Amino acid sequence: MKRKLGERIKEIRIQKGLTQSFVAKELGYKSPSMLSEIESGKKGIDAEKIPLLANILGVDINDIFFNEKIHDLRTNSA
Fold this sequence. Notes:
Layout: H1 2-15, H2 20-26, H3 32-39, H4 50-57, H5 61-65, H6 68-77
């Protein structure tokens, strides 16, 4: 799960044109290496940072956990 979540974070970050350095700093990390480890699945992200991350990335929290296709299917069937 950590790896897929990290991959999703990286995917959104790149789509938004944001650097690891910028996002890491906004999350309060001292260096971009922590974000790199999260994106590669080596480390998990603290749950309390998820709302902040969503805000930084400019997305809904659900978009971090679900890619658009899955999210669209869920919202269209509701």
